[in-house]
């Protein structure tokens, strides 16, 4: 027999995975499990989106992490020193020590994606006359992506952070922004 859940917030019945499920939330090393409908999950994610955008993702405890310099996805991460050097070259304020802000890291990743020499790139938000023309129109975002992106843009969340939180490309976010401006 299938497991039936009750939304811990609204007390709605959740009969299938399409109607909702259990969400884990961890704060200050304490973890809560909430049974939530899809609508309640969306509301929770909407409330947390600005905090997630400002923070950095860390994998679940126990997830193996590659050693620095090792191959694979974790080993391909840029060093803080590389990001700081790039940021200074592009007149982006960055501290000499400590954690590099997520917005600076995201800008670096967006600007250096697929480039052999990151020192020759500029942040996505700063264009120059020498920049190539914009790429051709991209695939339309899914309605839920567009809705979340519009909500984040209404809160003045920077373009690159909207892109990272919604799974859209920076170009897709910019196009959505232009559409909103036309409305």
How would you portray this structure in words?
The protein is an alpha+beta fold and about 180 residues long. It contains 7 helices and 4 strands; from the N terminus they run E-E-E-E-H-H-H-H-H-H-H. It has a two-stranded antiparallel sheet. Strand 3 and strand 4 form a beta hairpin. The longest helix is centred in the first third of the chain and has 17 residues, at about 40-55. The model is unreliable at about 65-75 and about 125-135 (pLDDT under 50).
Task: Name the poorly predicted regions.
Answer: 66-74, 124-135
Give the integer mean of the pLDDT values.
75
Shape by Cα distribution: globular
Element order, helices and strands?
Answer: EEEEHHHHHHH
Strand content: 5-15%
Q: How many strands, what sense, and barrel or not for the largest sheet?
A: 2 strands, antiparallel
Q: Tally of extended strands?
A: 4
Q: What is the structural class?
A: alpha+beta
The largest beta-sheet arranges its strands as 1-2
Radius of gyration: 20 Å
Give the end-to-end Cα distance, rounded to a whole number of Å.
50 Å
How many helices? The count is 7
- Helicity level: 40-55%
At a glance:
With 183 residues, the chain is α+β, with helices and mostly antiparallel strands. The protein has helices spanning 38-54, 72-75, 80-89, 102-112, 143-154, 159-166, 170-182, and strands at residues 5-6, 13-14, 20-27, 30-37. The relative contact order is 0.10.
């Amino acid at each position: 027999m299938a497991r039936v859940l009750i939304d811990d917030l609204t007390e709605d019945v959740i009969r299938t995975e399409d109607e909702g499920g259990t969400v884990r939330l961890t704060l200050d090393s304490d973890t809560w499990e909430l049974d939530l409908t899809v609508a309640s999950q969306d509301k929770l994610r909407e409330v947390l989106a600005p905090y997630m955008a400002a923070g950095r993702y860390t994998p679940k405890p126990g997830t193996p992490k590659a050693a620095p310099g090792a191959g694979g996805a974790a080993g391909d991460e840029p060093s803080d020193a590389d990001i700081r050097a790039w940021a200074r070259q592009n007149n982006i304020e960055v501290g000499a020590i400590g954690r590099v802000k997520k917005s600076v890291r995201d800008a670096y990743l967006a600007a250096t994606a697929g480039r052999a020499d990151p020192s020759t790139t500029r942040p996505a938000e700063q264009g120059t006359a020498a920049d190539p023309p914009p790429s051709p129109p991209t695939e339309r975002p899914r309605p839920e992506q567009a809705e979340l992106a519009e909500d984040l843009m209404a809160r003045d969340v920077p373009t690159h952070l909207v892109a990272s939180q919604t799974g859209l490309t920076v170009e897709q976010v910019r196009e959505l922004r232009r559409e909103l401006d036309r409305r």
